[in-house]
User: What shape does this take?
Amino acid sequence: MKMWSGRFRQPLDREFEKWQRSFPYDRRLLPFELAASQAHGRALERAGVLTQAELAAIVGGLDAIGQNAESNPEFLDDPEAEDVHHFVEKQLAILIGDTGYKLHTGRSRNEQIATDLRLFVRAGIDTLRNLLGGWIEAFLIRAERAGSAAMPAYTHLQPAEPVLIAHWLLSYVEMFLRDADRLADCRKRVNLCPLGSGAVAGATLTLNRQVMSVELGFDGPTANSIDATADRDFAVEFVNGLSQLALHLSRWAEEMILFSTPAYGFVELPEAYSTGSSAMPQKKNPDLLELVRGKAARVVGCATTLQTLVKGLPLAYNKDLQETQEPLFDAADTMINILPLVTGFMQIVEFNEAKMNQAAGSGFMNAWAAAAYLVDRGVPSRLAHETIGKAVQLATERGCDLQKLALADLQALHPSFDAAFHSRLGLPEVLALHDVAGGTAPRHVKRALQNARERAASLRAHEQLATG
Assistant: This one.
């Protein structure tokens, strides 16, 4: 029996009926549907709609449905269930008889799906933040191991200035900590309970919405029944957050791919996360990294799908909203599956620190430090920049570094050069020159590492508390 069949005299077209069903994918919401249904059942008992015996039967039936689904996956292979709500009502009636139909008193599938999806997103956020804690920890461990080793930093893909390897790694830590914060901020808006909103105007019974919210771990009930049943901005916001996380992962993957090429030679790809070529025996391909980069497009596509779906919908509920579920599920699954893999990669990938350190001391990456030397001697910044540019040109013509230019040649470019110039161009001196909070001077990187570790520890502790 359909949940809405009383008004109709003709059966649905069989192909349309199969086509419009959401149960093949929304059945994954079953745990959330069961939890929300139990909260609604208890609210009905408090309102005098159910007796204690009826509530006990309903709760027992819902528990049995959950246990059957866990123990026997084929239990969910129901070709007749229209959606997860219909499935639960149908199974409940089979288990406890007509009393099962009382559970739908005073509620609508519109509020049910809005509640289930909020519970799904909330659980996804908690899982992802915990996984991000492990991912960030992998970076922190590698940053601590790197010590005083340096590498080139690039702008426009051209060597720019030397930085500590730890400083480079901490740049990613900052990105992913922000991603975790974005998810936590999204969770605040997700964590409101639509139960009691009815189809559009609110429940037809005086239900205690606050108690239902507390029972399900929500911060409180939603404020407006139309908004609660009609909007999916919480899903859009969540997937937008996932798309930003995916973009950060994609940038990391791209850089690791570049650094693993012979032209750089900074990274040795771990065999556990690489594959070979079917034609060229010498190849070791960065398949994990390339797929991470490709999955970013998939998640961004899910975000675009959600935005496009809701952009022109009038209030309140429309069947179009059913189409928000698959991109939501897909984006969450994609990111939850990626994070353990990239964490494993990051834990075992090898950095050629000797080559990175050597590259950090070549290629005129001390040019800005050279200009700063002249500025310290009162030369205007723009003139110092121009002078060092000429010095670089001269060194290029002679096939040497700035440190190899004779003092007489330098003084011919500007009289402010003296014998102390060459001692300012060594790698340790250039690194130490960036002596500002957020810079790559070793003492600031040490502080930044400690600060990041404290923030990451706070993230993991919060998630352990939330899931414990």
Remarks:
- The chain has three domains: 15-105, 110-359+448-467, 367-425.
- The mean pLDDT is 95.
- DSSP finds 18 helices and four strands in the chain.
- The first strand starts at residue 150 and ends at 155.
